[in-house]
Structures are given as C-alpha cells and as structure tokens.
Amino acid sequence: MALSDRLEKIETEKARASGVKASLVPEKQRKGSANVAGTWGQMKRQVRDALMEELGTKLYAKTKADELKLVVSENLEAALKRAGIVLAASQRPKFVAELTADLLGYGPLEELLAQGDITEIMCNGYNDIYIEKSGKLIHSDVSFTDEAHLRQVIEKIVATVGRRIDESSPMVDARLLDGSRVNAMLPPVAVDSPVLTIRRFPAKPFTIADLVRLGAVTEEAGNFLQAAVLGKLNMVVSGGTGTGKTTLLNILGDFVPPDERIITIEDAAEIRLSQPHVVRMEARPANIEGAGHIGIRELVRNALRMRPDRIIVGEVRGGEALDMLQAMNTGHEGSLTTIHSNSPRDALTRLDTMVMMAGYDLPVRAIRQQVAAALDVVIQIQRFGDGSRRITHISEIQGMEGDIITLQDIFRYSFAEGGSASATSSGLLKPTGLRPKIIEKLQDKGIEVPARLFRPRIEPPSGGTSSRLVNATNGKRSR
C-alpha cells in the first residue's frame, strides 16, 4: 500500500469512529495555515508513523541528516495532498526539520540541545519542559507530540548506550553521544508521566583559568589545587546536586601529567580527559533476568589489577568508598573522587557511613583512621542563589585527635551580606593565613608552592584569567 493511501486510510478510519469529516483542517481553514491548535502535532505523528511503516529499513539506511530530509521531502507532498492538508510554503522547511529530528534525532529536544547556553533540560511530561540557563530555571515552549513520543525518545537515548528501560526496570542512567548525563523514569515509578532529565556539559571543557574568570575560584587557590594534583595528594570534591562537582573533577584530572596511566570509573561515563593514557570504565546494570550487574565497587577492585597511576571515581555513594580509601592507602596516590555533602565535615561523616555500607563490622575509630590516612584535601563547592557555582572551602585533613578527624581550612569563602542564598551575593575565597602541613608532602615531590598563596588578602582580585599557574608537567611556575 502506498504511503498516501495509508494516510488516507488512517484518516478515514478515524473519521468513521468520530463521525466527522476525514481531514485534519476544516474546509474553511484549508486555505490558511495548517498550524491550528492541535493539528501540527497530529500531522507530524501521522506522517512520521506512516513513513516508518512504509519505508522501514530504507529510512534508517539514510544515516546522514541531509539524506533523511530528502527522503522525507520526496514523500511529504503525496502524503499531505491525499490527507487534504494545506501546508504553507513557509512552514514546509520547519515541518521537514521536525520530522527529521523525530526520526533521526531526539525530536523537540534537538532544538534545545543545539543551544550551548542550556545546562539542563527537565521533561516533567510531554508538554511540560523546563530548561536551565545561567543557573535559572525557565519554562520552555517546546513540547513533544504526546506521551508516546516522549517515551520513544527516551528509549532511543537509552538504546544508544546499551541500556534498557521498561516497566520491569523503570529507571535508568545513561548519556548522550556528546557526554551529557541522562536520567529517565517511566510509570509506575514516575506517577504522572515519563520523566527525562539531561544535564549538559560544555562542548569545550572548562579550565582552571575559566573558573578564575567566572569568580568560582581565585588565582591563588587555583595554583594550590594544581600543585596538589601534581604532588599526588588524594582529594575529594564535595557538594550538592548540580554544584559542578564533575566539572571541577574534570579540571583537576587535566592537571595530571601526560605520562601517567589514569583509570576513570563512573556509573555513566562523563569524565573527559585530554591525556593520552586514559582507561575509562563504566558500571553495568543487571539484565532483564536480574543478572550481570557490575557496580562501582567491582570496577574499583579490578582497577587495582590494571597498574594505575591514578584512579578517578566519578562519585562514591556506597560500599565502594572502602575500596577507594584502601586504594589511596596502598600506593595509588593522587586519586580523586566526588561525594554529595554540604560541607567538608559532612563529607567525612558521609564517608564513615558509606564505609559501613561495605558490609564489614569495623569500629568507627578504625574507619576514621583509614579516612584520615587516605585523604589529604576536601574541596567544597556550592551553588549560590544567583545560579553561580563557587568553591567555598579548601580544607586539609591533618590527622586524628582522639576519635575525631581534624580539619583545617586553607581557603575559605567570605560571604558578603545576604549569604549564599542571596541572588546578588558576592564574596571572595580567601586564604585563612595558615600554612598547611601538606606543603611538606608537596616539597617531597619536588613541587614548590610559594608562601604568598596563603597570605590573607583584603581587596578582591581584579579578575581576568590566571597567567601564573603551576606548570602541569614539571611543577615549575610559568609566566
């Protein structure tokens, strides 16, 4: 059956069921625009379904967008004519582009993904989509055709990374080809509608100089962090959801010298490093029979057999915290990870809890001794009321006093009036004036850190990018 005949049959059957004329647009409106309430989505859905059924594999054999547009254009005229739909010449390019996005890409999300300033896309329903720009939530005017259309896009995203999502496994973490993080949920877990959340990362990864320019960190603190990575200090990046932990982890990871072997371990691969010797590992969920699950903990254990110089764990959230600490304590210095918490002290408390989740009956003091021996620095990053993300603490773990891990702030954010909740908050990450003990570790590695980095400063920096960062290969300073 030809495509045009198939479309006519679909419309005739719908008209017979509803008792109305088989046409998307009333006779008196046919000479005008086809973009009448409800008709645009109906047209796209019917033409899309008919194209997929009629052309089948021929359609998906066209892997390039231009070739697919040509196929859609060649079949569009007959389909519209038979359906009795009048489509203005000015609307044809938009109609073909949206059909192409539905068939080859991610439908209406293509328009949002093409905008580099959008950092998050949140689909609460097929017609209820929010975006984040400059840290602010905005309701978008784009929408899917219906709930089935949203679900189709979710399944397409999930399939590209070998994951699955259905009623038996209604939640999934995945990623787009550009590295964007994806979380999707289906009913019955998502009560009202399928839910899709996409967290995007910049096409060009941020550098420490970008953070200095944006005010997220000072030049002095940036120099110290770079020296800490070069000196193989074990560090944890702490912060809440959406504060920029993964972005900062990428920046820290890029300080690792290119002659070292790096192994990254994540739930969904997001870390993108520029070094030539990087091995990326990703956790795997259970299959439909409930078998085959490989978690972060198993990957950390396996990484120890792969001769790593550095191990970078995207996030610790369970028993893998114990394996990560043991790796840091057994010769894998300079390892990095992130953790969800609201302060450096809370990060250490959460580590206590997660080590207990490993299933071993360890005394609390033994756990804290392990943490104090493994970690050197905790970096706290926070999202402010105006949407900006800034480092608020760089703290040194000094050891144990009794049963308590001692922390000392090396740099601490000084809040202006209004605090972090203020939409106009402005402050400065200042040195506390205390010389950290870990300077001795850095000196043992041949990394010289000027004392001026830790001197308190009254006036804020004038801004601009950092031009005196530690050289990432030999620890010397460059101008």
Tell me what you see in this structure.
- This protein has helices at 3-18, 39-55, 57-60, 65-83, 92-104, 109-113, 147-160, 208-214, 219-230, 245-253, 296-303, 320-329, 344-356, 364-374, 439-444; strands spanning 118-125, 128-133, 136-139, 171-175, 181-185, 195-199, 235-239, 262-266, 278-282, 310-313, 336-340, 377-383, 389-401, 404-414, 428-431.
- By secondary structure, it is an alpha/beta fold.
- The protein has three domains: 3-104, no CATH class; 109-199, 2-Layer Sandwich (Beta-Lactamase); 208-454, Rossmann fold, CATH 3.40.50.
- The strands form two sheets. A nine-stranded mixed β-sheet has the order 9-8-10-11-7-12-13-14-15, sandwiched between helices. The chain has a six-stranded antiparallel β-sheet with strand order 3-2-1-6-5-4.
- It starts with a helix and ends in a 35-residue tail after the last helix.
- Residues 17-38 and 460-479 have low confidence and may be disordered.
Short description:
With 479 residues, the protein is of the alpha/beta class.
Topology (elements, then pairings):
Blueprint: H1 3-18, H2 39-55, H3 57-60, H4 65-83, H5 92-104, H6 109-113, E1 118-125, E2 128-133, E3 136-139, H7 147-160, E4 171-175, E5 181-185, E6 195-199, H8 208-214, H9 219-230, E7 235-239, H10 245-253, E8 262-266, E9 278-282, H11 296-303, E10 310-313, H12 320-329, E11 336-340, H13 344-356, H14 364-374, E12 377-383, E13 389-401, E14 404-414, E15 428-431, H15 439-444
Parallel strand pairs: 7-11, 7-12, 8-9, 8-10, 10-11
Antiparallel strand pairs: 1-2, 1-6, 2-3, 4-5, 5-6, 12-13, 13-14, 14-15
Helix pairs in contact: 1-2, 1-4, 2-5, 4-5, 11-12, 12-14, 13-14
